[in-house]
Every structure is written in structure tokens, then in C-alpha cells.
Amino acid sequence: MQQIVNSSYCYAKSWLNEGEVADYIPELCKVDKDQFGVCITNLVGQTYGSGDFEQKFTVQSICKVILLITALKDVGFDAVFARVGMEPTGDKFNSIIRLETGSGKPLNPMINAGAIAVSSCLKGTNVEEKFEKVLAMANALFGKTDTEYDKSVFLSEQTTGDRNRALAYMMRSGGVFENNVDEILNVYFKSCSILASCKDISHMGAVLANEGRSPTTGKMIVDPFFVKVVLSLMSICGLYDASGEFALRVGICAKSGVGGGILGVVPNRMGIATFAPRLDSKGNSCCGIKAMEYLSQALSLSIF
Ligand code: GLN
Asked: Which in 121, 139, 172, 182 has the greatest CB count within 10 A?
């Protein structure tokens, strides 16, 4: 397995200079653009990593999976899906158009509008209380106890996040939720700024691959029904408007983030994570997709 992970790293590294680092969040431009890591965690908690697999980065949209699990646990399936849909979208991850032309409810929890709606479901009297729940879930999924968020990235998103603010106000005016917009956005921005390495994220993938049970402690972390919900949404919407092509070429349940990370889950087999900051035009890591493609072929991982 270690050799295959190393080969996926060497293969995908040829695409290291392709794409651009996300610059609409100014703080993300400061990362070392040449970092690249791949990691697999299997269902007995063994880890196989290559390159910068222990380097921490902000999870960005990978937090949408953590937020969804936290909200499902907090308020249940019906309350969450009263505010967000379960259909894929062919639009960009931060698109506003369907909020105007559709029912007003965001299409799914894996796009920005959907994740903001999911954040609005969390119970708690203030941002800290709500974010505490997200961080506790991140710790459990990563198999850690000391997960932190990057304050500079959080502030950078808060200062420049007008598009997300617009999405939130559109949803509030359409009756999706009644919460204070700044409060919801602060929970969402802090969640996007959570720091994790490929090793941590592949552990999270292994928990989901293991029907919700930690591969290292054996503890049940996510209700198996919620695992099904999350994995089906990842497989149809996890890479935004590139989800269809990824399903055909790779066939792994996945979620990407503009920090350059990709979480992959192969049910009953393993969790996979990749990290390389340069992104393609759809906001997905170029090297990461290539590494996933390689691993899928070498290990016959497609779920289809
Ligand atoms: N924090 C980013 C945003 O809200 C997350 C987007 C992403 O990773 N696709 O725009």
C-alpha cells in the first residue's frame, strides 16, 4: 500500500504547476504553492502517507461535511433538510442564481449557500457554543483532541466574504432561516478555517468508510444512517459542478475545499486525503484529482 501511495504521489506531481491558488480569500495566497501530500487510512487505522501529508492547511469546504454531520446530530434529518435540498447543481460552489430562480432553499449542503443554511440549524446561544460543537466533531473525526482554526484565514474570510453574506441575506429574505446573518457566517467562516493535515482528513474518511466507527478507537462517532446521507451527497455534489466527471473518472465519494484539500471515502475500504493548493477552474485541487484518479485505478476503488 505504501508503494502505491508513493506512486500516486509521483504520478500526480507532474501536475503541480497547473492551476491557481484561490486568491479571493487573500490569506490563502500566502501558502507555499508547491506543497503536495497524499494519505490513506485503512479500517484498522493504519496510515500510509507520501509528501507533505502531515502539513496542516485550512479545510475550507471539506468543513461542509463536518457541519452537516454536526447539524444532523444536533437537530436531526428533518430539521436540516427543511432548510437545504439534496439535489446536485451544475453551478459554481458560490453561485447565488438558484436562490433567486428556484424555491429559495439552497440545492444541497455541499455548496456555500447550503452549508450556510446547515450552519443556521445548529443549536446554541452564541457563535462560540455552536463552533465548539463543530470543533468537537472535527476532533472526533480526525482522531485528535487539539484541532484548531486559523485565525488569520478566518478574519480574511470575514473581511472579504461579501458573496457569502449576500447568499445568507438572500436565504433569510426567502424565509429559509431567521437567524442573525453575522452569527451564522462566523460559525461557517470559522469552520472553513479549521486546520487539518491529510493524515487527519484520511482518518475522517476512514471513519465514514467504517460506517461511522473510528478505525483507531472503535468508538461510534457518526450514526450509520447519517453516514449514508453524507456519502450520497458527497458522491453527487462533493466536487460542485465537477462532481459528474469525478464520479465517472474516479468513482470515490469525495469533498474538496479551496484550501487545496480533497477528502475521499471508499465505503468498507479506506479514507483518502490529498492536499495541493493549486486549483482548477472549478475550485478543485489539480494534483489531488490526479492522485485520486491514480489510486482509484491502481486499487480498483470506484464504487460504481
Ligand atoms: N470558505 C470558502 C468560501 O466560503 C469555502 C469554499 C470552498 O472551499 N469551495 O468561499
From this structure: 121
Residue 90: predicted pLDDT: 87
Q: How many angstroms does the Cα of residue 4 sit away from the middle of ligand 1?
A: 31
Residue 201, class by beta-carbon neighbours within 10 Å (0-12 exposed, 13-18 middle, 19+ buried)?
buried
Mean of pLDDT values over 3-16: 98
Q: Which atom of ligand 1 is nearest to the CA of 115?
A: 4
Nearest one of 243, 266, 232 to 91, comparing CA atoms: 243
Three-class secondary structure of residue 285 per DSSP? strand
Q: What is the mean pLDDT of residues 11-29?
A: 96
What is the pLDDT at residue 193? Answer: 98
For range 287-301, the mean pLDDT:
98
Tell me how far the alpha carbon of residue 112 lies from the centroid of ligand 1, in angstroms: 7
Q: What are phi and psi of 21, to 5 degrees?
A: -70, 145
Tell me the C-alpha to C-alpha distance, in Å, between residue 68 and each of 73, 114, 116, 122, 210. 9, 10, 10, 10, 18
Q: What is the pLDDT averaged over residues 25-32? A: 94
| Catalytic annotation, residues | 61, 64, 188, 240, 258
* Cβ-based neighbours of 25, under 8 Å, separated by 6 or more: 153, 156, 157, 160, 258
pLDDT, one tens digit per residue, over 174-191 is 999 999 999 999 999 999
